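> forwarded from #structure-qc
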């Protein structure tokens, strides 16, 4: 952690105004969080360090609050160093009373695979502008870390291919439109999020319709403006009607490979079929042999 005039952040607590009822907040897992703020070259970063809830009241006196913070910082020093390596600068962490505004949350935990558990979570909260400035984390490939982040709405494209206009015009109610790439071993689709400037990520759709696999180790897995380049004359796009929430760090490529379980199976969603960006039909997924098709419930 950074120092100022020979003083560490621990020393600086003695000159920091702390409101003890505000410096601790409680998360949904019944754990207490100490919040800090650091101004970096990228922008302002908020960091929360978890402290397990004890029988002691959260309304600690000033001396107890400082001591608890020192213990928490000492415990998480190695993880804070890891964040400093990611940002390529030291962090001058200052206690803050409370957080304001709409912030994206990233949680980093140590993963104990033998015990199937995680512990010592660090929470990072940043605003949207900072999200696009941060470099690719250097810890994203480490196997002993469990990463989670805020879910953001994303558009899931199941198929995007060319079709003659006469075939597009012939799609009628109660027809079944086959999804050609669903019959291959790797059913490739795309996902894009407006909040992430509509960058498209190529992904694999699991045949059970319950999960997606994002593999950022493959070339061109993250491609800009894919939908724009493929929406030329004669393009037929099959996508999920509503947006699906996906952790933002997966959409930014902050993990090499991720097998993400969807909240609902894709066959529970309505499906939109569009031709040259114009909706021409709506339907639902149905299994056909070793692939899928869209049963047309209605046409535009």
């Amino acid at each position: 952690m950074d120092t100022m005039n020979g003083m560490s952040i621990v020393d600086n607590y003695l000159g920091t105004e702390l409101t003890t009822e505000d410096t601790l907040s409680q998360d949904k897992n019944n754990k207490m969080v100490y919040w800090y703020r650091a101004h970096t070259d990228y922008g302002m970063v908020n960091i929360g360090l978890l402290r397990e809830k004890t029988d002691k009241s959260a309304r600690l006196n000033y001396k107890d609050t400082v001591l608890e913070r020192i213990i928490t910082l000492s415990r998480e020093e190695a993880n804070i160093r890891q964040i400093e390596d990611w940002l390529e600068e030291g962090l001058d962490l200052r206690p803050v009373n409370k957080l304001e505004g709409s912030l994206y949350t990233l949680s980093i935990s140590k993963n104990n695979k033998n015990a199937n558990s995680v512990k010592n979570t660090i929470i990072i909260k940043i605003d949207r502008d900072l999200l696009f400035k941060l470099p690719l984390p250097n810890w994203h490939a480490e196997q002993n870390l469990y990463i989670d982040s805020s879910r953001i709405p994303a558009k899931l494209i199941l198929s995007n291919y060319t079709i003659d206009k006469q075939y597009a015009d012939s799609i009628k109610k109660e027809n079944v439109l086959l999804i050609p790439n669903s019959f291959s071993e790797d059913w490739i689709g795309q996902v894009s999020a407006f909040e992430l400037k509509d960058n498209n990520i190529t992904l694999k759709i699991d045949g059970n319709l319950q999960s997606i696999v994002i593999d950022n180790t493959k070339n061109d897995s993250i491609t800009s403006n894919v939908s724009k380049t493929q929406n030329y004359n004669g393009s037929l796009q099959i996508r999920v009607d509503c947006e699906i929430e996906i952790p933002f760090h997966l959409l930014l490529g902050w993990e090499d490979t991720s097998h993400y379980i969807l909240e609902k199976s894709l066959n529970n969603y309505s499906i939109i079929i569009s031709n040259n960006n114009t909706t021409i039909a709506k339907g639902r997924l149905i299994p056909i042999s070793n692939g899928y098709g869209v049963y047309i419930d209605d046409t535009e």
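QC bot note: Confidence is low (pLDDT under 50) at residues 2-24, 26-30, 221-232. Helices lie at 9-12, 20-23, 62-75, 77-87, 128-131, 165-169, 226-230, 248-251.
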